[in-house]
Write a structure and sequence with these properties.
The structure holds 2 protein chains of 2 kinds. Chain A is mostly helical. Chain A has one domain. Chain A has helices at 2-20, 23-51, 59-79, 85-93, 96-101, 107-113, 120-137, 144-175, 180-193, 202-211, 219-226, 242-267. Chain A starts with a helix and ends with a helix. Chain B is of the alpha/beta class. Chain B folds into 2 domains: 3-247, Rossmann fold, CATH 3.40.50.300; 252-312. Chain B has 11 helices and 13 strands. The chains are: A mainly alpha, B alpha/beta. The interface between A and B is medium-sized, with 24 and 30 residues.
């Protein structure tokens, strides 16, 4: 266990040192992410200036959702870089997977350590910045529970998106290439969760309630934190399902991943 | 010597989706559930003793790399018995792979952006190699493989030959008892090839490391392997000494003779004239039925000879003939 943890840090260290060799790319990427965040935020602000609010949500409240999702997705995209389906599929095709299997250490750990995209730091910081601004704009009656719950939500979101990445990566054992459907869930899902769920069509919301319960990850926790009423009359504990959904998705992903590994060992490429 | 690898009736079958051609075919592929069974390895049996250096040959798609992947613990076989160093490779993967080394010529196991020495140091940690052992090995390989000029260079900037040397070093740091080499000389120039061969020989000879070498370069085989296994269509066609191939399938030997005069007609018992060009004639004769010296004796009794040369069939052509003409299939 100690060896594994130590190895993880060393592998990440390699990634960080490698990326420091390409400073310009790092810098440009952070600038790019900043610009796109500012642009998205500006667009949002204009819409609110015109309409005042969206389905009962103010600019600050929507920014709160947006900031949480952005920051969490950024953290996930950095920690789970090795599982990014696009990149992972390519690694499988190139036989990189075999190289890793030849080493006497856990394969999952090696995938985690095979990539660590530092540029995501830009996205994380901007997410946190937007979140900070949002918290300044809305009035939250902070309690101890709410303070503790904030990081819990963020971690749950990271687990959720990470699980989706792992599932997407596992699928490439069969398809050899990342499939678009996965992007709908990861990138589409994060986009969708950045807005209040009550603006969506009934069927879509139900899909994200009962099939992929993303609604509990940020929308319900936000209702609780912001002290807004629940328009869908869910049970009172609904806001606190976030960690269960996050860990649940990650667990399912992990089981699927192990199944995929066994499949890979019986078919190869 | 003890047997380190025991393979018995090894089978590996793949289900491959059938492909339909053309535009309509592309759509059929999407929905089609038709599979074709490919027997990549179809009943292979062999043993390898500790310290052997075996050449594993076969045309592309013959089942070579599938066998190697099974032996290296990367693939689970469909059927058959297999034990390597008393391990069941795919089952005990993590422990097993710490006893083997592998170099796949086309890929590197090193970290692309890291200087060679740092990659090697990271591998020391991955394999938990004791510090003194590591230092000793590095010292030896630095000398044998002449690593010093590029130890601090990132792997991405190495030439192919340098990268191969670094990879060979990386595969041997943890003192594996079994080493898989897949095309270790591919794409290298003659000198680099020779250096790699000498190193492989040294490792096998000095350290007693068992080596399985797959290659398309017959000079590798001729210079390194006493024993050769040939696989095609998933079946082992030949398993034996390299010189047996020569004697059994070597085909005809050739005798080139330059006569001192123009003879309208030259012939000799036990050989056949296959080419004539002025004063030169080429004879072909069967190994075993007549020796070269007998032939020369007979010829010089009848004609005046200026110069002559005996040519052995080259092993590359012989092995190609074994695949192409299916000399070994019953």
């Amino acid at each position: 266990m100690r060896h594994s943890l130590d190895l993880y840090w060393r592998l990440i260290g390699v990634q960080i040192r490698s990326q420091l060799q390409y400073r310009l790319a790092f810098f440009l990427d952070v600038v790019g992410t900043s610009l796109s965040t500012i642009l998205t935020f500006a667009t949002l602000a204009f819409v609110f200036q015109r309409f005042g609010n969206i389905a009962g949500w103010t600019l600050g409240e929507v920014a709160f959702l947006y900031g949480m999702v952005e920051a969490a997705f950024g953290v996930m995209d950095m920690l789970f870089s090795g599982f990014d389906p696009q990149n992972f599929g390519k690694q499988v095709r190139l036989g990189r997977m075999d190289q890793l299997l030849l080493r006497p250490v856990d394969i999952t750990l090696q995938i985690f350590g095979s990539e660590f995209i530092m540029r995501r730091l830009g996205r994380i910081l901007q997410g946190l910045l937007v979140l900070g601004i949002a918290i300044g704009m809305v009035e939250i009656h902070w309690t101890a529970t709410k303070l503790i719950f904030m990081p819990v939500i963020l971690v749950s979101l990271v687990c959720f998106f990470g699980g989706l990445f792992i599932i997407g990566a596992t699928i490439t054992f069969w398809t050899y290439e990342s499939i678009e459907v996965v992007n709908i869930f990861t990138y589409g899902g994060s986009e969708m969760m950045s807005y209040p769920m009550n603006i969506y069509q009934n069927w879509l919301r139900q899909f994200f309630t009962y099939i992929i319960p993303a609604i509990f990850l940020v929308y319900y926790p936000a209702l609780f934190l912001l002290g807004k009423p629940d328009p869908f009359k869910m049970p009172i504990f609904a806001p606190f399902l976030a960690p269960f959904v996050g860990l649940g998705v990650l667990l399912v992903a992990w089981l699927f991943w192990n199944y995929g590994l066994r499949h890979y060992q019986s078919t190869g490429t | 010597m003890e047997e380190i690898i025991r393979v018995e009736n090894l089978q590996k079958h793949f289900r491959v989706a059938k492909h339909y051609r053309g535009f309509v075919g592309a759509f059929r592929n999407l929905f089609s559930a038709d599979y074709r069974l490919v027997k990549a390895v179809d009943g292979v049996t062999f043993q390898i003793k500790r310290g052997e250096l075996v050449g594993y040959l076969g045309p592309n798609g013959a089942g070579k790399s599938t066998t190697i992947k099974i032996l290296a613990g990367l693939l689970v076989p469909t059927a058959g018995n297999l034990s390597v160093y008393n391990f069941l490779p795919w089952k005990d993967r993590k422990i097993y792979v710490s006893h083997i080394g592998a170099v796949f010529g086309q890929r590197t196991t090193l970290w692309w952006d890291l200087p060679v020495i740092e990659s090697l140091d990271l591998l020391r940690f991955v394999y938990r190699i004791p510090k003194d052992r590591f230092e000793m090995n590095i010292k030896e390989f630095r000398e044998l493989l002449d690593l010093d000029p590029f130890l601090d260079t990132p792997v991405r900037s190495l030439s192919l030959g340098q990268r191969m040397r670094a990879d060979l070093c990386a595969a041997l740091l943890h003192d594996p008892i079994l080493l898989f080499l897949d095309e270790p000389t591919i794409g290298l120039d003659v000198v680099a090839k020779e250096n790699i061969r000498q190193f492989i020989h040294h490792i096998n000879f000095q350290r007693g490391t068992t080596i399985i070498l797959t290659t398309h370069d017959m000079s590798d085989v001729e210079k390194l392997c006493e024993r050769v296994m040939i696989i095609d269509h998933g079946k082992l066609l030949f398993d034996g000494a390299l010189k047996t191939i020569r004697t059994r399938f070597g085909g005809k030997r050739r005798l080139l003779v330059d006569f001192s005069e123009m003879y309208p007609d030259v012939n000799v018992e036990g050989a056949e004239v296959t080419e004539r060009d002025g004063q030169r004639a080429i004879f072909e004769f069967e190994r075993g039925s007549v020796t070269a010296s007998e032939l020369i004796g007979r010829l010089s009794q009848k004609y005046r000879i200026q110069d002559l040369e005996v040519r052995e069939p080259d092993i590359e052509a012989t092995i190609r003939r074994i695949y192409e003409e299916k000399l070994l299939e019953q």
